[in-house]
Design a protein that fits this description.
143 residues, mainly alpha, 5 helices
Length: 143
């Protein structure tokens, strides 16, 4: 409908045969340009949301609401993996008690397979500073 009304405005009722092809090409290029512009405008909010999610996963993994579920799923799977009944298995998926939560399980599996890495927003527990200071002092004094 839009194409034909645009063509009627630019071309008129009957253009001379010498101008028919350039007018047709102009109308087609206008239509394609408007279509491309509308697709770009539709894609901009999608791109913005994807960047927000990426930043939440990459930089704000423990404090973002969007990535908190992913972190919690990873910690549960890690705790299960460290158990005596699961440490000798090839994958945590083979362990008793493992429950895949979508989309977290597929995402972590894809990241591990693609980038050959493991761990998501995990910081190993640190010794308390007082205990480590006392240990260092004993080592220094030779007691």
């Amino acid at each position: 409908c839009f194409f034909f009304s645009t063509e009627a405005v630019f071309v008129g009722s009957r253009p001379p045969p010498a101008h028919a092809l350039p007018n047709f090409v102009m109308v087609i290029s206008l239509f394609v340009t408007l279509l491309a512009l509308s697709l770009v405008l539709v894609a901009m909010p999608i791109l913005q949301r994807a960047e927000e999610v990426r930043n939440d996963i990459r930089f704000l993994c423990s404090s973002s609401e969007r990535s908190r579920g992913l972190q919690q799923f990873y910690i549960r799977a890690l705790d299960l993996r460290r158990g005596d009944r699961c440490s000798d298995r090839y994958s945590v998926e083979e362990c008793d008690g493992y429950e895949a939560e979508e989309p977290f399980a597929d995402y972590l599996k894809t990241v591990e397979r693609t980038f050959r890495c493991s761990g998501f927003c995990y910081t190993p527990p640190q010794e308390s500073s007082l205990l480590s200071s006392a240990t260092m002092m004993q080592a220094h004094l030779g007691n």
